[in-house]
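Quick check before the chapter quiz. The format below is the same one you will see on the exam, so make sure you can read both the input and the output lines.
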Amino acid sequence: MAVMFERDCGATTAFTTQVSIVRSDEQPTGTANTFIADDGHGAAAAGAWGGPRVAMTWLGPDHLVIRYAARSRVYKKAADTSGVKVSYEETTF
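Here is the expected output.
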């Protein structure tokens, strides 16, 4: 299961959009294990939560595609998480 969530680390930092891949009986803990990005000081299209927009699509049980807003500042892009291949596409929303 892929879980997308936002994180706010305080008044002096931007909201981030994060994605974790976890088993269906788990909840993500700590920072995301798959993808982390912020809006690059307003350069990327933001979602209602404040972090950059992200969309996820499963191509199969072991392949996830994460599309994220162009000009996002990306901190983490794991190519594989828990046996799931992860592909990325920078896009405009």
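If your answer matched, good. The longest strand covers residues 84-91.
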